[in-house]
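Researcher: Sequence recovery benchmark, item below. Answer with residues only.
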């Protein structure tokens, strides 16, 4: 019991520190975050307290208002923090992959399944909606990347729906902060076993890292083989 209490006490400072860091990060992009949160708390608490005085139960309504005000402030803070994070990631290479990694359960993400010399990149997400190819980069250049990736996948997963999304703010593109919502709106047509089978088949295609050829010739000086990669004695 004592160990559980000490572990909880040790975790609380970590959570508070994380909240403080999130607030500082949000405030750099949203200067009014402090005023907004204070306004939300005071408004909700004030309304419930006023109702409490009107009906003769200020204490009960005050406690309820305090709890709801705290909850409302936390919700607003979470949304503003998320918006600030997306604003800072916007236009950064790999931003879409970071969003896909946090899309939720039931989705498997493989970053950088295709890339060109201009560093336009295509990521792949597989879920019950099927396969979604998410492209980052110049809209004109990524279209050829998407077409090549679809053609390659069509050989082994022709029976699975394939969607493509280009991340950006232009016409026909999907805003980074709306990417997760866009994927979750696709109709679910695959069962769990079908998703697993699709992932197994796509794993044969690999990604840029697994398909990257190993350099030939002698091993560079100072480089070591990974554990388990050397010859085994008999």
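Model:
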């Amino acid at each position: 019991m004592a160990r559980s209490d000490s572990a909880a006490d040790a975790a609380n400072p970590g959570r508070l520190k994380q909240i403080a860091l999130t607030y500082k990060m949000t405030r750099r992009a949203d200067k009014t975050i402090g005023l907004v949160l204070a306004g939300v708390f005071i408004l909700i608490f004030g309304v419930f307290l006023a109702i409490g005085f009107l009906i003769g139960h200020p204490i009960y309504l005050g406690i309820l208002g305090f709890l709801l005000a705290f909850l409302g402030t936390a919700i607003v803070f979470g949304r503003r923090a998320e918006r600030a994070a997306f604003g800072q990631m916007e236009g950064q290479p790999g931003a879409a992959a970071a969003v896909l990694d946090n899309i939720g359960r039931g989705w498997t993400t493989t970053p950088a399944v295709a890339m060109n010399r201009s560093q336009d990149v295509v990521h792949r997400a597989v879920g019950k909606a099927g396969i979604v190819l998410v492209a980052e980069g110049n809209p004109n250049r990524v279209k050829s990347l998407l077409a090549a990736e679809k053609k390659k996948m069509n050989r082994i997963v022709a029976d699975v729906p394939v969607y493509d999304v280009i991340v950006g703010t232009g016409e026909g593109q999907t805003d980074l902060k709306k990417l997760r919502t866009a994927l979750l709106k696709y109709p679910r047509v695959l069962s769990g076993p079908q998703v697993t089978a699709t992932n197994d088949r796509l794993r044969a295609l690999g990604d840029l890292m697994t398909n990257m050829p190993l350099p030939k010739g002698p091993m560079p000086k100072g480089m070591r083989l990974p554990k388990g990669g050397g010859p085994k004695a008999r």
